[in-house]
Design brief:
single chain, alpha/beta, Alkaline Phosphatase, subunit A, 7-stranded mixed sheet, 3-stranded antiparallel sheet, 18 strands
């Protein structure tokens, strides 16, 4: 972010050491808020793509219970099967949890992957967001997350829309948070309208109604320049001043984040939740309207939108009884995910926008004494839709207890190869340079996209 302020505000620093007053902050631009991160120079050296292929990535914080959602085992012992029953979908032979009747009616439009393998054992969102195993060696600076890499390779589709937007809410439990841009540096950070400074987003001296006043904006940026010169070594600001003004004066991004501009019936179709209420105080809030904002951002020109949704780390115990929590979360999840998939098809976006929904690992087959399921890295589940993929099928299978992949194991790298493929990026030939200038392939393993899907 940069700060249209000119006033010496707080000296609090962000994780990259830049003072808060050296950032542009914008507020009151819609229901979701709006900030301008340091995206202005993020793509200055990369070419702009011509077609807008896109990805919406939904992280189910804490690891969802695969055997209670899309891989039920009704014939397993009751301490494994649990109380949920499978129901038939609109695709013969595919069954999912009875708590997902809306999704069951559109199984022809998505693909459950029941045999995702290679998860780490502990909480760490990094594997979900960049596909790299955190236990393996990494380049200096670390691997960039997916959206940062895509933005670097493809650039912007529209001068008024950042290529990568994160709708992830900050979690007080550190491992739940998405990783940074790695060796691509802070310039490759996503645009973060839900970030930790959202409450601080003010535009001193300029109201939203005056955003079109270019002279006032120039004066504010002049004040910013003087402030920056006096307090920090932020270079290259002048080169991006005009672009900053263009982005600030454009209503496109603000409109995408403003759900008051959406048909109320569509908002109701997705459902709403309280973004200030965190599940168990350390996960992400259960905010189904984030999925609608993601769709609107894709329409506005974003290439990658990431979001975190609710908390799924259900070990049991007081107030964490897994089947009580599932009874609360599953119907909301069914409503918003089915709405997103339906929306993409109705708007003709299903060929270009890929949706992937997953968590960091699966859950134990056996229900614990605390009536919960614990971490289970040996098999995981993912849901994919859109992207012009061959939907209406299930990929992979687990054993009778849902504990091991017994057919067609799928790796995180294969899922990522599929996402890159759907964006038109060849992972076998595309590289990005690390801190030392050494070219790095996007994936560590030379794997092909999931052939059943492409």
């Amino acid at each position: 972010m940069m700060d249209i302020s000119g006033q010496a505000g707080s000296n609090l620093s962000f994780c990259d050491g830049v003072s808060r007053r050296n950032f542009i902050k914008i507020g009151a631009l819609g229901a979701a808020g709006l900030t301008l991160p340091q995206l202005l120079r993020a793509e200055s050296e990369s070419g702009n793509g011509r077609s807008q292929k896109s990805v919406i990535m939904i992280y189910l914080v804490g690891g969802p219970p695969h055997q209670d959602m899309f891989d039920l085992k009704p014939d397993a012992p009751k301490e494994v099967a649990g109380p949920w029953k499978p129901i038939q979908t609109n695709v013969p032979g595919i069954e999912i949890c009875e708590a997902f009747p809306l999704l069951a009616g559109m199984a022809d439009k998505f693909v459950p992957i029941r045999s995702l393998v290679g998860s780490q054992a502990g909480h760490d969102a990094i594997q979900v967001f960049n596909g790299h195993n955190p236990r393996k060696p990494k380049p200096s600076g670390g691997w960039p997350q997916f959206g940062s890499a895509v933005a670097k390779v493809l650039g912007q589709t529209d001068a008024a829309a950042p290529p990568f937007v994160s709708l992830c809410y900050p979690c007080t439990h550190g491992p739940y948070n998405e990783p940074g841009p790695g060796f691509l540096g802070s310039a490759a950070n996503p645009f973060r309208p839900m970030g930790p400074t959202r409450d601080d987003m003010v535009l001193n001296g300029i109201t939203p109604e005056r955003l079109g006043d270019r002279e006032s904006l120039l004066k504010s940026i002049d004040r910013l320049r003087r402030d920056v010169d006096a307090t920090t070594n932020m270079k290259g600001l002048d080169a991006f001043t005009e672009q900053a003004i263009g982005l600030l004066t454009s209503s496109k991004l603000a409109d995408a984040l403003d759900l008051s501009k959406e048909d109320p019936k569509v908002v109701e179709r997705y459902g709403t939740g309280d973004p200030t209420k965190f599940m168990d105080s350390n996960g992400a809030p259960r905010v189904p309207q984030s999925l609608l904002v993601a769709r609107r951002l894709i329409e506005a020109g974003a290439r990658v939108v990431t979001l975190n949704y609710s908390k799924w780390d259900w070990h049991g115990g007081k107030n964490n009884y897994i089947f009580k929590r599932e009874a609360e979360d599953f119907p909301v999840f069914d409503k918003c995910v089915s709405a997103l998939i339906e929306d993409l098809h109705q708007r003709g976006l299903d060929k270009d926008c890929t949706v992937v929904i997953w968590g960091e690992f699966g859950r134990t087959p056996k229900i614990s004494a605390q009536v919960g399921r614990d971490h289970w890295p040996r098999v995981n589940c993912a849901l994919m839709a859109g992207g012009g993929m061959k939907t209406g099928q299930v990929i992979g299978a687990t054993d009778r207890l849902g504990g091991e992949a017994v057919s067609r194991p799928v790796t995180f790298s294969e899922v990522y190869a599929t996402l890159y493929h759907n964006l038109g990026i060849d992972t076998g030939s595309t590289t990005i340079n690390d801190f030392s200038g050494r070219p790095q392939y996007l994936l560590e393993e030379n794997v092909a996209p999931i052939q059943e899907l492409v």
